[in-house]
Protein 1
Amino acid sequence: MKLLQDHWPVGIRTQLMLWYLMAFAVLMLLFGAIFYANLRTSLSASLDTALQLRTQQIAAGITNEQGKIIIQDVTGELPGVVDRDSVQSTSTPDGQEVADQHADVTFGTLVRILAADGHPVYVTRAFRGLRVPAASITQPLHHVVWQGTVTAHNGQAVRLYSAPLMHDDTVYGVIQVGESLTSLGTTLQSVVLELLVIGPFVLLLSAFGSYWLAARAFGPIHRLTQTAQEIEASDLHQRVPVPRTRDEVQALALTFNEMIERLDKAFAQQRRFVADASHELRTPVAAIRSMTDTVLDQEATPQEYVAVLHDINSEAERLGHLISDLLVLARADEGQTLLEWKPLRLDLLVSDVLATVETLASERSITVELGRLAPALVMGDEARLIQVILTLLDNALAYTNEGGKVELAVVIRDKHACLVVQDTGIGIAPEDQEHIFERFYRADSARARIASGIGLGLAIVEWVVRAHRGTITVESQVGQGSTFTVALPLAESASQEQKKA
Ligand code: ADP
């Protein structure tokens, strides 16, 4: 079938029909053969039984009186025995039977009675046309019934039953009764012929039937395909029709719709991302333009030029950060970013990073405290994990008022190393909490607070944590502060999970 498909791209309906056809043909051949064999066996068995019965009936009319075999001619009354030939009760002087080539083996009576010395005392004319093996006489003389198939001179097969004639346990003769196998052969032949005629007919019907059934079954799928083809990338709010059949087709349609919905969301997200990115890129460029326009339009003092250059520099720096953040996310989306996995002590990374923000913290009069730092070995990318700690710490400092407190801790919970960053800052409103990990999302309170925030920091953090098979959660109350918890699998379980993956 595979070969067939490669050279001739047939539809699934035709394929199904061909499979059915093949299965039907094999089944029919098998059943035909079994039926034929059974029929032949049972017909042969019933023929043998009939022969046996007839032999017994003829034998009942034979008596042995003082060594002379007396035969009552009962053949005419026997069922199935129509003696159209005259009965010959003699043999040639030398004891050899005269072979009568023209005797009708098919319709003639096939009876022979032999004396104990093997001489025939009664032979029907048709019987003379048979080639009888010696065993069929010697075996009954030794008290054993002989049964077999013999051939006539004209080649026809005849079933022969040969039994001893007994009186007081002594064999005084042999009776042989035959029946032509021609009618059995004819019956079997006609059965085979009927099977050969009916078989292709049934096969043809089954082919039509299976094609029709397959066409019916694939109708809904065909409609589904057509609708799916009509759905454009720009028109992803369309859905395929869901049949109320509660079957595989319904499951397929539902899965299809779920997939379209996911695609729709992903496309929308991508479009929003591009729009937000362009907007964010435009802002610093516009700022630089307006600054340069101002100094170009009028004469400025060298101090003014320096001040503008400083401003341009910081805008360019912001632009640079934005572009590199965008690049990180774009590469993450494409799955291009390769993480450099190695065993790392999360607690040591935290104390390293802390040193880099101490100046900023003291500038803003915020106390940064180290809580419990449990030794925690994780598998991860050093640079990315430093980025995570730094972003959370930067945010904690950015959104905490002067005199506030930021606390950092590393604890072990449930085979995970948990980095906890807690601040006494402005907090996040419940409706913002579910969005802060989205790209470019900034709570209004944050916007009012620092202009430099872009809203990409937590999106990158979330991606890095996910890439490390970890989780990030936030608990926050407006005006009270926020707690960010990053849970990463400990090195042992991390390496096991990586092996599994
Ligand atoms: P950015 O800080 O550049 O605005 P982030 O992605 O880092 O972007 O954060 C997204 C938003 O989450 C912030 O705009 C702010 O509203 C909120 N947020 C993050 N960290 C804190 C925090 N420690 N306290 C209060 N709000 C926070």
Protein 2
Amino acid sequence: MMPAMVVEAYPTPGGGAGLFPELITRASSIAGRIDGLLIALTILCVAVSAGIYLVMIYFAARYRRGSTADRSNANAQSHTLEIAWTAITLVFFLVIFFWASNLYTTMQTGAPPEDVLEIYVMGKQWMWKAEHPGGQREINELHVPRGQDIKLLLTSQDVIHSFFVPAFRLKQDAVPGAYTSLWFKPTVTGEYALFCAEYCGTDHSRMRGRVVVMAPEAYERWLHTRESSTSMATRGAKLFRQYGCSGCHVGNSTVHAPVLDGLYGKPVQLQDGTTKVADERYIHDSIVLPQQDIVAGYPRIMPSFKGQISEAELLHLVMYIKSLDYTEGTVP
Ligand code: CUA
């Protein structure tokens, strides 16, 4: 056993051992639930296969050539039996379906708790880039505080990558031009392998990194040691002026464009009568595909910024727009 202090500062990965430590270690709040599902599925499949093979072996022995078993009046059909084996297996597999889909939606789209820490992760050939809300950036590493709910917002600069942390039992595609998200709570301090799990070109197999789960105080210290003067939202505010967004989207502009203060998270009434919630994806798409969703009551005049703004800049703009509250143009 290592002394507790050492474990806190720089432990071996979660104490897992053997051939596949990453698959044995459980280092996030959801890992145990995923394992529970996997074990249940395995038990169910083994039980069903065992049942089939046992009956098969029994009949093969009983009705083998030369056996004296009674073969007269064989039952040609039994509705009870047919209904029973259909209904019973249906119930079992429906339980698995609801169990698994519930876990999946919790992990990928479920609403995380209020005080969630959002971190932005971008895949590119061939590295993972992460950016913390305060503007701290890292490459092929992701530092997170233990015991904190964390939401990752994932995107890609080129092709599809997949963010995979086996010890967290987490995997999510990073798709160019779209945002995907994941949320989890790391529970054990340590370093865990991060892989790209989607073939993305020559160096796919080398697109690896590590996730470092730190004690909350250690994470705070780490944040302060990274030199970062500008938060993501502040960078976004600069881009907002640079690309001329402010020319139309601030309250006193002459062009009639939707005001963005307090937009994030609110439902938006669209011209075609539908409503969309203004999440990260909506804001992102409104910048690159402005003709797709026209806000009710506004003219179709915004030009597309597709190809002019990089995904990294788009993230900063989205962060800036998210940071706007009802007091005009305020960066928190
Ligand atoms: Cu990125 Cu494989």
Protein 3
Amino acid sequence: MAGTLYIVATPIGNLEDITLRALKILKEVDIIAAEDTRHTLKLLNHFEISKPLISYHRHNEDQKTNILIDKLKNGENIALVSDAGTPGICDPGEVIIKMAIEEQINIVPIPGACAMINALICSGIDTKEFIFLGFLPLNKKIRKEKLKTISNSKETVILYEAPHKIEETLKDLKEIIEDRKIVIARELTKIHEEFFRGDIEEAIKYAENIKGENIIVIEGNNKLKDNELIDMTLEEHYIYYKKQGYSKKEIIKKVAKDRKVPKNEIYMKYIQKE
Ligand code: SAM
């Protein structure tokens, strides 16, 4: 019988945030695949867990995926962990999960810390609907497109950012977010945990002197009035949501809601789209 692939969330700073179930799984599996084995070893040592570790990171993902899938097929149970938080969220995970699904291997999530969710829930910004865009790309063209998505997003936007790039990113955001609220969630769960809440000008000033890890949460664009959406052609309305990463099903639901018409009516019009 094939083994199970456990996707195990680990703390994003405070070691007390590991769950009892995560510890149990880490103790029980045959192998732990870790983004940085030295980093994970510290976590394991802290909880007195001794297990064979295999490195599994962005640069060896393809090659290591095959090795790990073979082990799973041979009946070994594997836990996948990243350096911090939830694997697969701006961390390695996607590749092996997709392949495990193809190979009909059982995959079990072991929930725990995820930086963006904790930034969002304490931001004070609308949590009902949000989009997570990960890190803004460095490629100028793609970055511009993402900034446009942020500019047009009616939903709260969440971004991850590396410490040395936050100032530059905030300066780019200044061009597009006008007076929307912005929150910087810094060093979550650590000694210097802090939430900055204000506007973009203040955020830029704040970021001049900060160190550590940060998440940016931006209020949705409330100025984009419903009637602006209705004034779009159906095609433009579709593209507007497509660019924000919504699936066809979600787009149909949103367009129908904006236009106050039954979903079926929109579905019939969009039936040709992929
Ligand atoms: N998979 C992880 C998760 O979702 O929890 C995120 C990994 S990603 C490579 C690292 C980014 O997450 C950092 O650049 C920062 O934006 C954010 N992050 C991780 N830990 C954080 C913390 N303790 N406080 C604030 N931001 C954090």
Protein 4
Amino acid sequence: MRMLVTGGAGFIGANFVHYTRQHHPEHQITVLDALTYAGNEASLAPVRDDIEFVHGSVADAALVDELVSRSDVVVHFAAESHNDNSLNDPSPFVTTNLIGTFTILEAVRKHGVRLHHISTDEVYGDLELDDPKKFTPQTPYNPSSPYSSTKAGSDLLVRAWVRSFGIHATISNCSNNYGPYQHVEKFIPRQITNVLAGLRPKLYGKGENVRDWIHVDDHNSAVHAILEKGRSGETYLIGADGEKNNLEVLMQILELLGQPADAFDHVTDRAGHDLRYAIDATKLRDELGWTPQYTDFRDGLAATVAWYRDNESWWGPLKQQVEAKYAAQGQ
Ligand code: NAD
Ligand code: DAU
């Protein structure tokens, strides 16, 4: 199978390429990535000789048309992905997440190529802390931020192209990922690398917000299950029952790094901060027989801490600029 992976130099996309090389070496992989601040070719270094890498944008119609015309399937990860950035400047989110997805859709429609669209649980808005409910494929869309609203819009474009033009597409909405190669702007790598760099971790507000953590390899094994067995036109929610509030996660990071429990700062909260996400992945588990491998969050977190400790050359060059930007925002 000739597979076009958009956003393959980003966190989840790069891990997807590694996972695919390891578990499905029969696939030929082409990565299309614009190498924005979030993309890093070094994340693909271990597989660089086994894949084709194309530097370009998913919003470039001529390039996308050419690449899609010689693919059997597109796995579309490319996006602007950080909520905090979308609050400062929503414009690239509209271009990449909406126009980029539209561009991919027109190409797969023209060439009759299968699409798997990677999306987020944030399209569903948030839940109360004490609400027994979780997100299901029937939960109405109710996004909060410019990031999540552009992801919601991209999902709706895919659904419309399925219904109106009959394209062969599936969608997955996953919860918060953690693991190696995640940009240091995100919560878990930011706190780990703050400690490693001699800075104090930063917690938004009281730290009561809940995220449903899943290891990136479990996300990617679920994407492969959908590619192999998913029904066209369907949406699958991906999650591994990993609900934890931010304070709990930070306490585990501090402990794993041998720091006292009070060695962090409370900083300005995020505007419109979603309170809680929680995924009901019954459809994925029952229909496709998927199960996560990383069932112990603490083990997965310890491996992630070890990866950042061992790979300062990967994150070190990014750190100062990210922290300067946060400091200017009081975060
Ligand atoms: P990331 O920011 O780490 O990586 C995004 C990648 O896309 C980067 O390599 C970047 O260079 C590339 N990119 C950005 N604009 C592009 C463009 N116009 N053309 C081509 N490439 C472009 O993001 P991530 O965390 O790996 O997220 C990947 C996907 O998974 C996104 O669609 C995101 O919405 C979704 N998702 C992420 C999470 C999470 O926890 N990180 C959870 C659920 C879903
Ligand atoms: O739910 C899936 C989403 O998860 C993805 O769609 C997004 O692409 C991904 O970035 C992630 O979004 P979040 O906004 O939940 O992730 P982030 O890592 O930015 O923040 C996680 C939580 O930690 C959130 O409640 C905000 C908080 N936080 C974040 C940072 C960066 C802090 O308390 N301190 C921080 O320094």
